[in-house]
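General statements about sequence and structure are easier to judge against a single worked case. No coordinates are needed to read the tokens, only the vocabulary itself. The sequence in question and its structure tokens are set out directly beneath this paragraph.
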Amino acid sequence: MWPMLYPILLILVSNIFYNVCTKSTPSAVHPFAALSVTYLVAAVISFAIFFFSARGKNILSEFSKTNWTTFVLGLVIVGLEVGYILAYRNGWKMNTVSVTANILLAVALIFVSLFFYKESISLKQLLGVALCAGGLILINI
């Protein structure tokens, strides 16, 4: 049970701090300057965790195992970060921006998984999509 639970808890706690920090990013700072510092900190932490958790592994060898997804993920993460920063700067409230984005994401991923990964879609999921659409209307009016 714990291997299924702790990643979700990590995501939950990280997302809470993520939204608080993103909303609290000073409006006077250029978003990409803030993100540059953010990614420098993330790179240092990632390297340190790699160094201590992967004893005996060569980092250059590990880098050579990456493919296009690593680079696209970096681009996508920048889009996510600046999207949230701009959403908050443009007046979105914390109690609606994340819910709206995550509901839209969940609905989109149902169809991505259906068309690209050949996963099935159930009647319950379709009903969930309908409920999500209703929820989006309610929280944004």
Summary: The chain has two domains: 1-92, 93-141.
